[in-house]
Amino acid sequence: MQRRFHVKWGDPMLYDLTLNTERVSIASCVEQVVGLARRPEFQQTPASRAILDNLALEARVRAAFMAHEETADVQVTVAADGPKVVLRGMVGTDAERKAAARVAKSVAGVGEVHSELRTFRRPRR
Q1: Helix (H) or strand (E) run with residue 49 in it
Q2: What is the distance between the alpha carbons of residues 4 and 94, in angstroms, rounded to a whole number?
Q3: In Å, what is the CA distance from 6 to each residue of 67, 83, 99?
Q4: Which residue, among 51, 122, 42, has the nearest Cα to 80 in the 3D structure?
Q5: Of 122, 124, 113, 123, nearest in space to 76 by CA
Q6: How many helices (H) and strands (E) does the chain have?
Q7: Residue 120: DSSP 8-state
Q8: CB within 8 A of 63, min separation 6: which ones?
C-alpha cells in the first residue's frame, strides 16, 4: 500500500471505522457498518457524486495509459473536472507528450484534454 498509494495502511486517519473481528462478531460488525452508512454524513450528495465521477474518470485515463504501448511508462498527474481532463508532469519525449493527450482524449467521458505536460530535455554530451 505504501508503494502503490503512498500511504501507510496502519494510519488510523485513513479510516472512518475500524472493527476488531477477534472481539466483535461479524454480525455486530455488519450492524455497525450499516448503521454508519445510513447516517446523513455518509449519504450521497451532488457534490460527492461529482467527486466520485471525477475520480473514476481519472482512473480510466490512467488505466488507458497503462494499456497503451506508447504511454505505458508515462507517470503523470491526471485531474478531471467533469469532462475536462488536465495532464501535468514530465515526459521523456514529444512523442510521449502527444500520445498521452491522444490516449486521454480517447477515453469515454473525456470531452476536453488540457495538457500541461513538459518534455524532459536531456543534456547533450
Answers
A1: helix 46-67
A2: 27
A3: 22, 27, 27
A4: 51
A5: 113
A6: 4, 3
A7: P
A8: none
Residue-level pLDDT at 7? 79
Which triple of cell numbers denotes residue 22? 477477534
Positive or negative CA dihedral for 80, 85, 89, 92?
A: positive
Integer Cα distance of 88 and 64 in angstroms: 16
Element (H, E) at 85: strand 84-91
SS3 106: coil
Q: Which residues contact 55 (CB under 8 A, 6 or more apart)?
A: 80
C-alpha cell at 88: 501535468
| Residue 101 · residue 87 · CB < 8 Å | yes
Residue pLDDT, tens place only, 66-97: 999 999 999 999 999 999 999 999 999 999 99
Query: Which grid coordinates belong to 89?
Result: 508532469
